[in-house]
Amino acid sequence: MKWIEIITVRTAGALGTEVVADILRGIGSNAGREKPVMVKLFSHATVESDLSIHIHWEASRMDHRKSSIGLELAGLLGDFGLVNHSVWIEEKIVGES
Known about the structure:
The chain is of the alpha+beta class. It contains two helices and four strands.
């Protein structure tokens, strides 16, 4: 099963992607924690104060809760602005392998 956590932050001013990348590196270096398949950072095309972090997961089962990594990241980003944190499950499309 594949799912993704999406954490979006809207700041009062521009939050540099370097700052968020440093936060992500700090969280990812914690040993003993579950490891995502991939983490991607997006900046909004027209609103420079909006960033979105996508944490990709894959496992045989999931419990539909936000991960400890996602919760920690959302908490840290909350210091910079408004945060939205959600979990999305990948659905199979008919005919897709």
